[in-house]
Every structure is written in C-alpha cells, then in structure tokens.
Write a structure and sequence with these properties.
By secondary structure, this protein is α/β, with parallel strands linked by helices. The protein is 36% helix and 26% strand. The chain folds into two domains: 158 residues, Rossmann fold; 287 residues, L-fucose Isomerase, Chain A, domain 2. The radius of gyration is 26 Å and the shape is elongated.
Length: 449
C-alpha cells in the first residue's frame, strides 16, 4: 500500500469551486490508482492571514505517509507552498500541475503551469527529492506518473527498514557478491545480517518428524517428480526449510541467501535448491544463493516496485543477438510455465539433491543488477524478450543431463550490455519495469547505466 498525503493549491482570487473540482478529480485519480491518502487538504490558497496554510499544517501533522503530493490546480505564489513543504523536506514529493480545459472554441486556464514553473526551480534549489509532473489539455491525466513516483517512495521507505539474512559469508571466495555495510545502509537502506551455518544446523536438529511431514504433505508432494527422489533428501529439504524459516521469522528477514557450494553442499552434504524453493513459494521470501549480497538487495528493490518474486538467473552464454540465462538449482513456482518440476540429480563430486527443472514463462523481461564502485551505487538495467531456450545442458551433471531452467533473452544491443555486466547473477522481472525502477534509483541517488 502506498501511503500519500495530498495538498491542492489555488490562488485566493480564482473561483473557489473551480479549484475544489479540479483537486477533487485529481484526488479521485490517485484513489483509483490504489493510493491510500492519509491526509487530503484542498483548496489551500494564499489568503492574507494564512488560514489555509495553518489548516493544512494541522491536517498533515502526525500523519504517517511515504510521499507528499503537491497538486497545483492554478496559480499560487511560491511562499504559500513552501511554508508547508518545508515541514516535510525529508519526504519524497510530487509537484503535479493540473491543466485548463476548453469551452467551445476557446481555452480556459487557471495558470496551473505558471504555478509549477515558478516552483520547480525552487524545489530544486531547496534540495527536495521530487518529481515534476504536469497534465496537458486534451490528454489523459498523467496520474500514473504520479503513482510511479509514489510507488518508489513507498519502496524507499521499506528499504530503509529491510533486513536480509545471510547464512555464512562469501561463498566460493567470490568478489562480486561482497558489499560495504556502511555505504549500503547510507544509500539504499537495508541491513544485511550474517548468521552461522552452525546455527542453521542446530535449528535443524530441533525440527520434529511431524513438522517435516506437514511440509512434505502440504507442498513437496505436489511437485512433479520426473524420477522418485531419495526419501531422506525430501525430509532434509523440509527440515532445513523450517530451520531457516524460523530464523527469518524471528528476525524479520525479507530476503535470504545461504552459503551454497562451500556451505550447504560441502559441509552439510545437501544441495539447497528445494530449501530455496520452499522459502520463496511458502514463506514469500526473496532468495538467491552463494551469499550474493547485492543480489538480495536488488531483489528487494525489484519486488517492492513490481510485486513480483524478483528471481535470479545467471549467464551461461552470450550470442550476437541474445544471452542464455539459466540456473543450476531452482526457480520460484511463480515464474514456472506448467508448475514445479523436479528430479534427483548430482553435479560433479557434489551430493545428489533435488534439482528444479521447470520451464520458465516467456515474454518481455527486465534485467537488473545493483553494484557499487568506491561507495557509489549504480543500477545496470535493460529490457529484453525472453523466449524458450534451445536444448542445452551444463557439462558435469549425471547423464542424461537435466534441461536446466533457462531463457534465451533477446537484447537490442548485446555488446553494450556485456560491456557493462556486473555479476553472473541478474534479477529478473516480467514486463518493462524500467521507468518505475528508475524512479526508485533516482530517489535513492543511484545512477542507471
């Protein structure tokens, strides 16, 4: 839910009913887009005694909202607006100018854009974090642009308080999955908390057979097994899932990563693919393997904006017009085409586990990856058309090798993308979500590349 405050302005000499009706229509547009208006005040004029300004301040006082929508329904002197906005300079804002209308063969205006053009530079000079939106006579209201910025504001607020769980640290001694806690907290907001694999194992030992059976009967039994899995593997999956979930529930984690190759597989002898599946599908958590810190943060950013699970894929091959992206372990049920399909399989010298071999949905996708350079953050982002991949396999799996979940993603300029590629893991969402994600990055001061 996007929580917003709405304040509508108009000059004191403009007929009151005109300003009220324009603000009422703008307010209705926001409500139709699903915003929750914690406060809605209009018309606010530049009356000499500043009664409207004082009333607006009183109406907003103590209200909890993510974004302040400043709706300019007609000319308004700058001071009348700033006397309210200065009380909320830490809040993201939208400077939204409405427009005039036509009556017969003439145009009628209340000088809305005189008001916004007087305010835009002022807002910039004052250091406000704002978006400038204006409507145009004869065209639909740009309320969706207002919503997009408000959505980013709500996501920004959630990120400020988000907590990510990390079992172990720096799987395979990778560099690209590391992070700097101070700059991450300062710029983006989430806190990444590391807990030991030992705690996970200790929690697992306390899971009862009855609890495991409940998970197996409720969820795992509904997966489509191409071959029967070892019953002990199924019980391990249920038990470790419940152990991780208990930690996440207690500490309020919204995303989780596990030490995969050097942790779950090497030390505990159990590939964690089904654990991730259950954490994503049953617990609703963002999941990514291999202690991918900024991968988890990217997931939360994308999930808060799109409402999707924000799943990860990694690159296997680059072609002249497309990339082959897949996973050697799991995908969330939300992105499968035809449901969850699994099979027992082993890779190289690793223990046999339950491998997800589901088909993925196709269509337009947005690829994202957050990265940092010397404490500055960047979002590498592009959009492509995902199609069903050709038959392919990763060398090293037991034969016959499984068809791993994957997509061939057609890109407009593969070389431009690969010249900037930031990690083997990218976060995928369906649809073209660039504008909404870019708004969030803009609000956080993250440059899009």
């Amino acid at each position: 839910m996007i929580k917003a405050a709405f304040v509508g302005f108009g000059e004191v000499n403009t007929p009151r009913e005109i300003i009220v009706n324009k603000c009422k229509a703008a307010e209705a547009g926001l409500l139709s887009e699903g915003l929750e208006l914690c406060a809605s005040v209009y018309p606010v004029t530049d009356d000499y005694e500043e009664k409207d300004i004082k009333a607006a301040r009183a109406a907003l006082s103590g209200k909890d909202f993510d974004v302040l929508v400043i709706c300019i329904a007609g000319w308004i002197p700058t001071h009348a607006v700033v006397k309210i906005t200065e009380c909320y300079r830490e809040k993201p804002m939208v400077l939204w100018g409405l427009c005039g209308w036509t009556e017969g063969d003439r145009l009628v205006t209340t000088a809305d854009q005189a008001g916004t053009s007087a305010l835009r530079k002022t807002f910039y000079d004052l250091g406000y974090n704002f978006k400038y939106v204006y409507d145009i006579i004869g065209l639909p209201s740009r309320v969706k642009r207002v919503k997009s910025w408000a959505l980013a504001a709500a996501a920004r607020e959630r990120l400020r308080h988000a907590r990510i769980g990390m079992a172990g640290y720096r799987d395979m001694n990778l560099y690209g999955t590391l992070y700097d806690g101070g700059s991450l907290k300062r710029v983006v907001g989430p806190e990444i908390e590391t807990f030991e694999m030992l705690e996970l194992y200790q929690r697992y030992l306390k899971v009862t057979d009855e609890q495991k059976d409940e998970v197996i009967n409720k969820t795992i039994s509904k997966w489509h097994f191409l071959k029967a899995a070892n019953p002990e593997s199924v019980r391990l999956a249920a038990g470790y899932y419940l152990a991780v979930k208990a930690i996440c529930d207690e500490r309020g984690y919204e995303a989780i990563s596990l030490k995969d190759v050097d942790g779950m597989k090497k030390l505990l002898g159990f590939p964690p693919a089904p654990i991730f599946m259950l954490l994503s599908d049953e617990a609703g958590l963002c999941t990514v393997p291999e202690n991918d810190s900024l991968g988890s943060v990217t997931q939360l950013m994308v999930k808060y904006i799109t409402g999707q699970c924000a799943f990860y894929l990694e690159f296997y091959e680059f072609f002249s017009d497309r990339v082959l992206a897949g996973v050697p372990d799991y995908v969330p049920a939300e992105v499968t085409d035809g449901g969850v399909t699994v099979m027992p399989a082993a890779f190289g010298e690793l223990s046999e586990g339950i491998l997800n071999v589901s088909k993925l949905k196709t269509g337009k996708v947005t690829l994202c990856r957050l990265t940092s350079v010397d404490g500055e953050y960047y979002m590498h982002m592009t959009v492509g058309d995902a199609v069903t991949p050709r038959k392919w396999e990763e060398a090293g799996w037991t034969q016959p090798a499984p068809q791993l979940p994957g997509l061939e993603i057609l890109l407009e300029d593969v070389e431009d993308f690969t010249d900037k590629v930031m990690c083997q893991h990218y976060i995928i969402s369906y649809g073209d979500n660039r504008e909404d994600i870019a708004n969030l990055c803009d609000m956080l001061g993250i440059e899009i590349i």
